[in-house]
Amino acid sequence: MKLKLALSLSALFFASSLFAAPQVGQAAPAFTLTDSKGQSHSLADFAGKTVVLEWTNHECPFVVKHYSGNMQSLQKQFGSDDVVWLTVISSAPGKQGHITGAKADELTSSRNAMPDAVLFDETGVTGKAYDAKTTPHMYVIDKKGVLQYMGGIDSIPSAKVDDIAKATPYFSNALTAVLAGNPANPAVTKPYGCSIKY
After folding, report:
1. Environment class of residue 153 by beta-carbon count within 10 Å: exposed (0-12), middle (13-18) or buried (19+)?
2. CA-to-CA distance for 195 and 198, rounded, in angstroms?
3. Does residue 168 sit within a domain?
């Protein structure tokens, strides 16, 4: 009985460690995902660059709020050879927000968005590895592959466009700090938005 219990606890620990929450200051979870054009991308491909991960669901009103111009502005502001912006869709097939590659490209074009790639995480493995909970949910990974920020895009958890200008821009501040070689402060904030449809 004790052996069975020990084995059960060991299995439980192993399973939980597979999806242990990522930690700021530690290596960001590795991933390999396919983009809207069928190309494969791994985190390791971007060594030496700062990587932004943006979880999204185009039907979520909080995403609609930030794609009224704010997200595009951030993509343009931080677009450079040193920054790779990856938009991630973890909606499972049949769930809200799940789209084809062609639809993703259409949304990128129609919204004048500028991510370097839109990645599909249909199994949810990458989203769960990052403990991504909402759309949007933002992450900053530095040039060494270390997670430096995870959390909300800003400080006002509403779907009102007018609140963007009033909010503290947590993500923008964090990315600015990391690009300057400084730690994000705060490095972890509470994300808000729609739950990811795993």
Report:
1. buried
2. 9
3. yes
